Each structure stands twice: as C-alpha cells, then as structure tokens.
Amino acid sequence: MSSRTRFYLDKRNAKFMGVCAGAADYFGVDPLWVRVGTVLVSIMGGAGITIPAYLVIGWLAENKPRALYDLPEAEQKFWREMRTSPSQGLREVRGSFRDLDRRLRDIETHVTSSSRNLSAEIDRLR
Fold first, then answer.
1. Which residues fall within 8 angstroms of residue 69, CB to CB, at 6 or more apart?
2. Which N-terminal residues, if any, form the signal peptide (predicted)?
C-alpha cells in the first residue's frame, strides 16, 4: 500500500510534469498559487535554482498512485491535515473518539438502566 503522507507528482492535475500540482496537493493549497509562486521566483532571479530543481523533482518523484486519486473528499482532507499539521490532526481524531466514547456510554447507560427494563415489562403487559 502506498503512503498517504508522501509527496507524489499529481499527473491528473498537471500542466507540465505535475510538480506544482503535487506540491499543492501535499500542502493543501490551490495549484494555481503554487504555479504563480514558482513563476515569480523564477522571474525574480531564482531561475538558476528553480528550474533545475523543478526538473530534478519531476524526474525523481513518483507518480501519485491511482488508488489515492479515488479517495473520498473527507479522507483526502484528513490525510492532507496529517501531512501539514500532524499534531492538530491527532487532536481532532482524539476529540472525535472522545465524542464517540461519550455517546456510546450514554447508549450503554440507557440500555442497562432499570427504567429501560421497566419500560420493556410495561410493553409486554400491553
């Protein structure tokens, strides 16, 4: 299984090699802004490093596996948050589990309470 937290070239949303689209997917931003930033850095005098770095990344990085393209939006959002801010993502997961645990305790209390047994007995008598 492929790692959901790695950098991949995004060939489905690519304009040239998929480097900017892959970076945008990795960081959870719009690919347009990554492309604009890359062009601006190249124009402002960073072309000596930006263009070769772009080409090397495009040559070395792996293509995004097909299975990762078809993930539901909620799962894509989860993995994007885990890449960009793991501690915040874990806090949200812990909070969700705490909420589920609380709800499960409420259900257990309702099912095992004596009033539930009494209600069931009254229903049988009807």
1. 12
2. none
Tokens 């772009």 found at: 54
What residues does each domain of the chain span?
Answer: 1-71, 85-126
**Which segment of 21-35, 83-97, 112-126 scores lowest on mean pLDDT?**
112-126
**Residue pair 65/2 in contact by the 8 Å Cβ criterion:** yes
Would the pTM count as exceeding 0.90? no
Residues near 23 by Cβ (< 8 Å), separated by ≥ 6? 7, 34
3-state secondary structure of 5: coil
Q: Residue 3 and residue 28: Cα distance in Å, rounded?
A: 16
Token pair for residue 29? 């931003």
- Is residue 19 within 8 A of residue 9, CB to CB? The reply is yes
C-alpha 80/C-alpha 72 separation (Å) is 12
